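Researcher: Let's continue the batch. This sequence belongs to Aminoacyl-tRNA hydrolase, and it's 133 residues. Same format as the previous ones, please.
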Amino acid sequence: MNKELIIQELDFKAVRSSGAGGQNVNKVASKVVLNFNIQESKALTEEEKLLATTNLANRLTNEGILILNCDEDRSQIRNKDIVIKRFIQIMDGALVVPKIRKPTRIPKSVIKKRLKNKKNLSEKKQLRKPPEH
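Model: Same format as before. Here are the structure tokens for Aminoacyl-tRNA hydrolase:
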């Protein structure tokens, strides 16, 4: 994944934010909305696109667009930086290929030990019974 190319493909939109800012909130668009279309990206390979769409399926719109918002700060520039960092973290997590689990075999010595313990416990309990006449 080439981060510089992906960042160039991002689509930003500034909208009015709710929350802190006083009178400034009514006239300044400090909230940043990031849109990224995974399928039309030229920075991702086909395998990366497939992996990202499957891992981010619950975060994508019906058109396959990832939308992120940030209105944590009063500054539009800082909100843009925050949303870019968040986007990169999400994409890094989405492009991780999970390791294939290899089932382990139980060693023969462990099986023998378990059976021996079972047999010893059984004998101990048999010795507790009263003798038969």
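Researcher: Any comment?
Model: The chain has a mean pLDDT of 90.
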